[in-house]
Amino acid sequence: MSSSGVEAAQGLKVVDAFDLEDELRTILKPGEMVRDAQGRRHRLPRYFYEIPSHEAALATRLTPHFAMNEFILTDLKEAPRLHQYPRYVPCAVRVLAFYLEQFRSACGASIHIAVNGAYRSPSHKLSQHATPHMWGTAADVYRIGSAILKSKELIEKYNLIAEDLSDDIMVLPYGHDTGRSADDHVHLDLGFVTLIPREISEDRMEQPQENRPRFAFEDRRSKERRTVPAAEE
Ligand SMILES: [Zn+2]
Questions:
Q1: Whole-angstrom distance, CA of residue 122 vs CA of residue 27
Q2: Exposed, middle or buried: residue 166 (CB in 10 Å: 0-12, 13-18, 19+)?
Q3: DSSP assignment, residue 127?
Q4: CA of 185 to the centre of ligand 1 (A)
């Protein structure tokens, strides 16, 4: 197994973005306030998963059907530094993945997220106003099973399924007004959710965390904690 594979199996490191190098802090803007399209102010996330490699992004499952790589697909609209590893995604992405897994079950088909359709940094060219995409808590779904979501009928059908799942979910109506509606995907989001990992101590602003905590997606699930590994033969 490659070293990156071992890294993925052990889990991803959680970082306080205030501890990152200047270039990344400038791009990710941890703790800064940004305005949404209605002028309301929201504080950007500060705690991120550090994804060491493409292999780790593929290998790290957030839920049975969603791997980390599906949430960081971006093109040249994203800041160039964020196309290099290690890459960073707000910790709340795992909450989004949980809801997408429920959405997948309700649809009875696979869910396909568009390029630039999940996490977009505050420096992404589509980040004109604060949107939950900058929190890692929004997904633009362009295909469900074999259905390409380009018609009013399909978008409204799947919007209803998403809204029926939970009051936490908001969708954009069908329409051609970018940002307020969508005509080639289902946008669903959870709002401006920030997640503070339980290993984090928040009683500091700028000094580095003393112990860089880890969060393992794979081997810390309670189900697996209860399982006694078989003896090697
Ligand atoms: Zn969207």
A1: 7
A2: exposed
A3: -
A4: 8
Q: What is the dihedral of CA 171, 51, 114, 177, to 10 degrees?
A: 50
What is the CB neighbour count within 10 angstroms for residue 64? 9
Cα separation of 163 and 6, whole Å?
Answer: 38
Mean pLDDT by 10 residues, the chain (233 residues): 35 91 96 96 96 94 95 96 96 97 98 98 96 98 98 98 97 93 97 90 63 46 51 50
The type of residue at 183 is D
Burial of 36 (0-12, 13-18, 19+ CB in 10 A): middle
14: left (phi over 0), alpha (psi -120 to 50) or beta: beta
Beta carbons of 56 and 4 less than 8 angstroms apart? yes
Q: Where do the H-state alpha helices sit in the chain?
A: 3-10, 22-28, 54-59, 93-107, 152-165, 222-225
The model's pTM? 0.85
Residue 148 alpha carbon to ligand 1 centre in Å: 16
Ligand 1 midpoint to CA 187 (Å): 5
- Residues in CB range of 193: below 8 A, 6 or more apart: 92, 95, 132, 135, 137
